[in-house]
Design the sequence.
């Protein structure tokens, strides 16, 4: 196994350097991130790009000794070396700064060699991004760790695993914690060197030379990891769930299973879902669901948390305006009593699979736990990645009534919180897709129905009517 690791903003954290640069350039002390510094110089000074070139020279040259290695980065590299993994630092860094005042490569090398465990580590400096990409492609690296998505996109193929060093949304396996990255790589080392690596959004399918397949899933939230691990261990062989081969600190590897998406919520689904949920209800697992709804206010708090991630001001303001309206329309004194029980909030067709023996399997348990079953049902209704027919809703509702026979207010809560969950899913959709046009359309439809005093503001109006008829 051969690992390439980027240097700047992947191994080295420059956040302690920014205040030094800001002071040196006599800029506002409130600028504490590289992106803020760049934007300020570009938008608020008449010295672009010369002042930015000077700032970069100070950051990567004069003050590089103030940069710190990210927590656990050095220890992680040492653990790789002890495990016999080949490690190389591969950095896009010119020999001389653009301001011609600093020998960037020499200063960076000095900083690296002063660290325990790193003095003998090979370092490759590339003058351009294109040189770096070519070097990564030509030198048989199994894994590449970098903070820049465009680098990873350029080198990603079936024989090379990109790991994105970030805490933002990413199409790659990603983490901004070196302890988690260590466990990803040490987990992979337990199997043969991969022959093929298939990329999915939050996980990877690894196929070895002899054809064996493994499924690698990484969690940047330790609670999600614990929920998934405990669920897979509980289900074990009972429901043909994937066999857990390794589980350590936010990384789970299971035996690969050939799966096809199951297209419908039908009687076969009904039987499986009841059996799985009965197992969880009998268990002693006590996790809360992600974004749990144990109280009336939790429903609104979840939307407020989603709003924090919305960057488009117009969409954010419109969502917040509609949220305030919902809070006034649905006061706590009118809310049905919430029944807390074990829930599966990620019920959608993408998590329902058929294996090569025609056995139905339920996947993805990282959100499971104690919460309001009504929210789980409404997530299924509003999930943007599947369409649910009216007869399928009948089947799903039947499953919920059988799983929670003593929850007498379930249907009342489903109808009461219907519009609230619809707005939350508009926020979820925008945060994951960035689709401004569709999001605006959904918000306009929602607002128009609200203004016309309709009972259902959601785009899933037929389902609302179908459920209302069950009252």
Sequence:
């Amino acid at each position: 196994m051969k690992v390439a690791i980027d240097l700047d903003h992947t191994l080295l954290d420059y956040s302690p350097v920014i205040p030094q640069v800001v002071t040196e350039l006599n800029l506002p002390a409130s600028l504490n991130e590289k992106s803020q510094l760049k934007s300020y110089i570009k938008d608020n000074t008449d010295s672009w790009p010369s002042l930015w070139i000077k700032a970069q020279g100070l950051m990567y040259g004069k003050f590089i000794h103030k940069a710190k290695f990210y927590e656990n980065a050095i220890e992680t590299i040492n653990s790789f070396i002890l495990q016999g993994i080949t490690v190389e630092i591969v950095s896009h860094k010119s020999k001389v700064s653009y301001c011609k005042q600093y020998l960037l490569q020499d200063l960076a090398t000095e900083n690296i060699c002063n660290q325990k465990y790193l003095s003998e580590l090979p370092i490759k400096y590339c003058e351009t991004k294109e040189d770096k990409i070519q070097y990564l492609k030509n030198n048989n690296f199994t894994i590449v760790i970098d903070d820049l998505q465009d680098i990873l996109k350029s080198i990603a193929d079936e024989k090379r695993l990109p790991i994105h060093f970030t805490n933002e949304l990413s199409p790659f396996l990603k983490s901004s914690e070196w302890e988690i990255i260590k466990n990803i790589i040490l987990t992979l080392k337990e199997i043969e060197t991969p022959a093929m690596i298939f990329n999915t959004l939050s996980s990877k399918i690894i196929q070895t030379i002899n054809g064996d397949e493994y499924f690698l899933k990484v969690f940047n939230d330790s609670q999600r990891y614990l929920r998934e691990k405990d669920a897979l261990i509980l289900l074990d062989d009972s429901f043909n769930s994937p066999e857990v081969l390794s589980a350590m600190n936010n990384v789970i590897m299971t035996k690969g299973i050939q799966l096809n998406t199951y297209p419908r919520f039908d009687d076969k689904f009904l039987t499986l879902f009841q059996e799985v949920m009965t197992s969880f209800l009998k268990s002693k697992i006590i996790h809360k669901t992600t974004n749990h709804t144990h109280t009336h206010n939790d429903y609104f708090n979840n939307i407020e948390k989603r709003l924090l991630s919305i960057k488009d001001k117009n969409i954010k303001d419109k969502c917040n305006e509609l949220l305030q309206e919902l809070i006034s329309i649905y006061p706590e004194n009118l809310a049905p009593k919430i029944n807390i029980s074990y829930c599966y909030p990620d019920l959608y067709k993408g998590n329902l699979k058929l294996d090569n023996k025609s056995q139905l399997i339920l996947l993805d348990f990282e959100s499971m736990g104690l919460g309001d079953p009504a929210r789980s049902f409404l997530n299924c209704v509003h999930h943007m990645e599947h369409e649910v027919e009216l007869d399928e809703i009948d089947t799903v509702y039947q499953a919920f009534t059988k799983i929670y026979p003593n929850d007498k207010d379930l249907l009342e809560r489903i109808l009461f919180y219907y519009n609230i969950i619809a707005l939350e899913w508009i926020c979820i959709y925008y945060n994951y897709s960035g689709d401004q046009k569709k999001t605006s359309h959904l918000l306009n439809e929602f607002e128009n129905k609200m203004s016309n005093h309709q009972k259902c503001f959601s785009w899933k109006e037929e389902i609302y009517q179908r459920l209302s008829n069950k009252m």
Remarks:
- The first helix runs from residue 18 to 24.
- The chain has a mean pLDDT of 92.
- DSSP finds 18 helices and 18 strands in the chain.
- The radius of gyration is 26 Å.
